[in-house]
C-alpha cells in the first residue's frame, strides 16, 4: 500500500526560530499581530487547539520517557498533521482534527486552514530583534500524480514548497530532503530523513527555526561551574549562568513550584518552572495551558544544549489518531485513490540555551506508501529538573516546550 512520510523536525533554541504555513482561497494582506478587535479570527481557535494539543502530547511523551529530557514543537507537529488533513476523508479526517484539538461543530475545516494561514503570516513577520521562521514542504514522487486541489490548498494555506522527488533513488531523495531541512534550520538539523522507501508517495515536512536574544542577557563572566542534582543518586557539574536581577515570577503554593518568565527581545518569552524538591511528578501531572502569573526574584540557570527524536505513531495513536496509520486510512484527497496510509511520522528537536539567548529548530515529517505578592529577593537556582515553555505571548502561540532532567 502506498504511504506518506510525515517529517516533523525541531533544530535549536538559542537566538533564532523558524516556521511556515499555507478550501476557499481568500487573499490575506493583513499581516499585523492580533488586536483586541481581532480575537474572533480563526487563528485564535488555532492557538487554543494548539495549546490543548501541546499539553496532551507532552503528557503522553512524559509517560514514556519519565527520566529523559523532553523537547518538541507543538506547532510544528500540528501544522504537518493539518496539511495531511487536507487530503483526508471520513473517519481519518475526523480523527486527525479531533486529535489536534479541533471540534468540527465549533470550527470548520475552512476556519482551521485559514487560521493556520493567518497565524503563519503573523509569526513569519521580519523582526530585527527576533528571527522566527516556520515553513512547509511536500516532496512528491515524480512518478505519481497528486490531486490538484490538495496541492493548491497546501500551497495557499500553508505556503508549502512542492518539490518533485525521485524516490526510486532513495540516496538522491534523502540528500535532496536533508539538504532542504539543513538549509531551512540554519544547519541545526542534518541527516534527519534516512531509510526512505522507494514506494513512498510523499514526504510532508514542517520546519521551525528561531533565534532570540534575552532582553537582559546573562554575563559570561558570571557563569561558573555548579552542581545539578539529576536525582537522589546523580549529581553532574554544569556551567551555571548567574544573574542578579528582578524577574517576573509566580509562586504556586498549591503545586509547590516557582514559575519564572524570561523575556527575549521582541515578542517571545520563555517560562521556566522549578518544582520544589520531590514535587516534580506532582507538578508535571498538573501542567496545563492556564499556568501563567508574575513574581520577582533572583535567578541562576544552567547553560545547556539538548535534543530529542520521537517516532510519533504510538503517541498519536494514544491521542486517538489511529486510522491514518492503517490500511483503512482514507487519504483519497491526495491521490484520488484510497490505497494510501502514513507509514512513518517523526519529530526531531534541538534546543540551545546560553548567556545570549536561545536558538531552536524543529522538523516534522511523514510519508505515504501504497498499500501576586510584593517583590522578594530570593535566590532561585535551577539546580534540579525543571520544565520550560517558549511562546509568543502576543498571540499565545506555544512554539516549544519540554523538560530538562539532565542538562548534559
Automatic annotation (TrEMBL):
Which species is listed as the source? Podarcis muralis
Q: Which gene encodes it?
A: LOC114584892
Q: Which UniProt keywords apply?
A: Glycoprotein, Protease inhibitor, Serine protease inhibitor, Signal
Pfam family of the protein (one): Serpin
- Which GO molecular function entries does the Swiss-Prot or TrEMBL record give? serine-type endopeptidase inhibitor activity
Signal sequence segment: 1-19
The beginning of the lineage is: Eukaryota, Metazoa, Chordata, Craniata, Vertebrata
Give the UniProt entry's GO cellular component terms.
Answer: extracellular space
Name of this protein = Kallistatin-like
Quote the PROSITE patterns the UniProt record gives. Answer: SERPIN (PS00284)
Q: Which family does the similarity line name?
A: Belongs to the serpin family.
InterPro entries cross-referenced by the UniProt entry: Serpin_CS, Serpin_dom, Serpin_fam, Serpin_sf, Serpin_sf_1, Serpin_sf_2
- Which intervals hold domain Serpin? 55-407
Amino acid at each position: 500500500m502506498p504511504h506518506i512520510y510525515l517529517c516533523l523536525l525541531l533544530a535549536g533554541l538559542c537566538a533564532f526560530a523558524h516556521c511556515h504555513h499555507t478550501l476557499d482561497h481568500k487573499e490575506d494582506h493583513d499581516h499585523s499581530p492580533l488586536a483586541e478587535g481581532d480575537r474572533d479570527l480563526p487563528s485564535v481557535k488555532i492557538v487554543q487547539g494548539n495549546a490543548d494539543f501541546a499539553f496532551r502530547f507532552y503528557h503522553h511523551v512524559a509517560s514514556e520517557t519519565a527520566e529523559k529530557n523532553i523537547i518538541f514543537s507543538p506547532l510544528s507537529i500540528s501544522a504537518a498533521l493539518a496539511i495531511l488533513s487536507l487530503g483526508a476523508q471520513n473517519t481519518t479526517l475526523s480523527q486527525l482534527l479531533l486529535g489536534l484539538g479541533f471540534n468540527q461543530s465549533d470550527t470548520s475545516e475552512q476556519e482551521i486552514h485559514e487560521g493556520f494561514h493567518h497565524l503563519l503570516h503573523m509569526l513569519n513577520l521580519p523582526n530585527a530583534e527576533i528571527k522566527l521562521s516556520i515553513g512547509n514542504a511536500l516532496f512528491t514522487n515524480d512518478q505519481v500524480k497528486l490531486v490538484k486541489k490538495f496541492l493548491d490548498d497546501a500551497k495557499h494555506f500553508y505556503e508549502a514548497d512542492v518539490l518533485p522527488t525521485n524516490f526510486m533513488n532513495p540516496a538522491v531523495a534523502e540528500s535532496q530532503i536533508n539538504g532542504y531541512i539543513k538549509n531551512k534550520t540554519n544547519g541545526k538539523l542534518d541527516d534527519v530523513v534516512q531509510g526512505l522507501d522507494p514506494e513512498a508517495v510523499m514526504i510532508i515536512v514542517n520546519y521551525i527555526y528561531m533565534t532570540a536574544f534575552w532582553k537582559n542577557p546573562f554575563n559570561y563572566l558570571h557563569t561558573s561551574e555548579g552542581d545539578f542534582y539529576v536525582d537522589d543518586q546523580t549529581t553532574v557539574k554544569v556551567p551555571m549562568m548567574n544573574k542578579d536581577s528582578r524577574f517576573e515570577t509566580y509562586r504556586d503554593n498549591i503545586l509547590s513550584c516557582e514559575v519564572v518568565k524570561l523575556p527575549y527581545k521582541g515578542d517571545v518569552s520563555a517560562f521556566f518552572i522549578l518544582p520544589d524538591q520531590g514535587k516534580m511528578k506532582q507538578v508535571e501531572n498538573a501542567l496545563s495551558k492556564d499556568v501563567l502569573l508574575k513574581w520577582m526574584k533572583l535567578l541562576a540557570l544552567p547553560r545547556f544544549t539538548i535534543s530529542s527524536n520521537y517516532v510519533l505513531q504510538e503517541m498519536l495513536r494514544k491521542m486517538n489518531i489511529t486510522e491514518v496509520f492503517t490500511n483503512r486510512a482514507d487519504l483519497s484527497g491526495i491521490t484520488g485513490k484510497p490505497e494510501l496510509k502514513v507509514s512513518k511520522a517523526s519529530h526531531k528537536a534541538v534546543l540551545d540555551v546560553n548567556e545570549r539567548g536561545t536558538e531552536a529548530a524543529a522538523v516534522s515529517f511523514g510519508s505515504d506508501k501504497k498499500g501576586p505578592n510584593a517583590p522578594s529577593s530570593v535566590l532561585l537556582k535551577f539546580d534540579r529538573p525543571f520544565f520550560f515553555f517558549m511562546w509568543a505571548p502576543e498571540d499565545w502561540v506555544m512554539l516549544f516546550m519540554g523538560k530538562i532532567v539532565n542538562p548534559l
